[in-house]
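In the laboratory, one determines a bound structure by crystallizing the protein with its ligand and collecting diffraction data. In a computational setting the workflow is compressed into a single prediction: the sequence and the ligand go in, and a structural description comes out. We illustrate the idea with magnesium ion.
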Amino acid sequence: MDIEQLKQYILCYSLNNCPLGNQGFNRVLIQLMGYLGHGKSSLINSCKYALHDKEFTTHAASGSADGGLTTVRNAYPLTHTITMVDNRGCATLNSFETGEFYTQLANFVPLNTGVEWTKEFDDVLNRLEDSDIEPNFSDIIVPVYVYSVKREIADNEVAELKTFLKTCRDLTGIFPIIVLTHKTSGPFSKFRDIFEGMGAEEIFSVENYTQEDNLKTLGRHLQFLNLIHKVLLNVNFRMSEERNPRKERAERKKFLHKFFHEREVKK
Ligand SMILES: Nc1nc2c(ncn2[C@@H]2O[C@H](COP(=O)(O)OP(=O)(O)O)[C@@H](O)[C@H]2O)c(=O)[nH]1
Ligand SMILES: [Mg+2]
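The predicted complex, in structure-token form:
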């Protein structure tokens, strides 16, 4: 596909055209995860720029220190079917942070509203129950993990990340697609090898468009369009089988209950 065909494929993508129909899903939710400052917001801005091609605009505020306790899990529609979600970043991958990530990934935290991070077991359970008031089961979730190659990575961190990524796979049925950012500022091929060793199936290295440097080139645009295209290929693969959105939501909820229960027991 050339760049125009690629754009058209993405812009016209509809779950209704899947071989078995939409099966009750109406949205592809690209869920971005990753440490603070690794380029999640910039990736959203870059994808929107590559797809819509107007002037570069900062949709997702980038570079701000959002280390507070409350945050908004912002959703940015790319097309009528595809939405990117800027999940709250974290600083480490301890069981508290991963628990918050899994809850966001499983779609049990509402979009576009302020969200308190919860440490207490009761609060965690209450939040899961509250999510049943307006349950969301019509999103097909695709996890994307963002990592900046400017950062060092320690051996114990590799082990933690491997477990984390595999859990994300179990939760969504898709191994997180890896996006290595700042590719011209670090040893991206070293990180490719590391993530491949963790079981990653798809690894993209990108230089995000930023306020400072948003000179549009074909290769740079293609990085982001190819990423979105790969997301849709994963969705097509999942949608080629019979699915039950309500049941899948229930499975995710059971998973979270088990995770938080085990964490509480350890504590
Ligand atoms: N040169 C370069 N800068 C980037 C890239 N990705 C993000 N940045 C910059 O890194 C900083 C943090 O990025 P941001 O998107 O806010 O990270 P987030 O916290 O994960 O959302 C910002 O100043 C961005 O402009 C990249 O691929 N290349
Ligand atoms: Mg951000």
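The first strand starts at residue 27 and ends at 33. Keep in mind that any predicted model is a hypothesis to be tested, not a measurement.
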